[in-house]
Amino acid sequence: DQQVKQNSPSLSVQEGRISILNCDYTNSMFDYFLWYKKYPAEGPTFLISISSIKDKNEDGRFTVFLNKSAKHLSLHIVPSQPGDSAVYFCAARAGSSNTGKLIFGQGTTLQVKP
Amino acid sequence: DAGVIQSPRHEVTEMGQEVTLRCKPISGHDYLFWYRQTMMRGLELLIYFNNNVPIDDSGMPEDRFSAKMPNASFSTLKIQPSEPRDSAVYFCASSTPSGTIGDEQFFGPGTRLTVL
Predict the structure, then answer these.
(1) Which pLDDT tens digit goes with each residue over A81-106?
(2) B90 and B113 in contact (C-beta within 8 Å)?
(3) Contacts of B33 in chain A (CB under 8 A)
(4) For chains A and B, what is the number of CB pairs under 8 angstroms?
(5) Record: contact B48-A100, CB cut-off 8 A
(6) Which long-range contacts (CB under 8 A, 24 or more apart) does B2-6 make?
(7) pLDDT tens digits for B4-52?
(8) Mapping DSSP to helix (H, G, I), strand (E, B) and coil, where does residue B5 land?
(9) Is there a contact between B87 and B76 (Cβ–Cβ < 8 Å)?
């Protein structure tokens, strides 16, 4: 059972436009959410996170939105740049009692065309 | 800090052989994780350790997989015997959760395993 799902395997966007990556989860105990970016032949690197007490967190061109009632989060990248082309994973933490363990989605491959 | 170090970066072996993947976490991190990346399931957590003690190995697919952490600076993931379906990229990650800012994990570059 996939507790964290990224239903779009890939996304293609024109440079300068907005990229929106989506993630759904099923476990209402998840209290912290993270996005990671992964380039080929490298390990994932942390991008941005959001606590369940918030509905938005912004860091430069990257904004994460959380809709707890829909169990949905999204990552917005604006404006998109060719260097943003990578695989994006969303991840969730199942409460402070499970501190340390993250559940990851399948990933979405973003291609930003010049 | 050098970050999380994994070796080898690439491993090609034949079915039935033993494979050992190695990881050195970031100094001072008390959590260590082993993941497997596949197209279908993304990043699957195999096992994780806290202070060298295995906490959750429910993601280990079969008894052919085993992991150890003999000290704070070294961990191994062993597959014996290996099978073609084990072919994947295996990542090691480490973290030091604060509980207040979330649990950012730092990943190594991964080991690409090919079992023929």
Answers:
(1) 999 999 999 999 876 655 667 889 99
(2) yes
(3) 100-101
(4) 69
(5) yes
(6) B3/B106, B3/B108, B4/A43, B4/B92, B4/B93, B4/B94, B4/B106, B4/B107, B4/B108, B5/B108, B6/B90, B6/B91, B6/B92, B6/B108, B6/B109, B6/B110, B6/B111
(7) 999 999 999 999 999 999 999 999 888 899 999 987 788 999 999 999 9
(8) strand
(9) no
